[in-house]
Amino acid sequence: MNRDKFDAMSKEALMRVEEIMNATKLNEFLHRKEEEEKKKNCILWILAVIGAVAAVAAIAYGVYRFFTPDYLEDFEDDFDDDFDDDFFEDEEKEEEEK
Length: 98
Prior knowledge:
The chain is mostly helical. Helices cover about 95% and strands about 0% of the residues. The longest helix is centred in the middle third of the chain and has 66 residues, at about 1-65.
């Protein structure tokens, strides 16, 4: 009888140890899952900040390009006008001489 009682107690103790081990494994799994989510959340925040900075930089560059006058365009227009006028004057002189 003592032996049966001892066997029952040992089986019950083994079952409790297994339950504790399973609970511990489950806690470790859940804790690991939370850490992974925290890492993903941190990476997501970093990417969001980088995206926001890039968007602000793009908007600032667009505003700068819109409000900055294009000096080269004015120079090219002046150069083309002077060249075209001289060219046509030479042609008119040649036609008059003929």
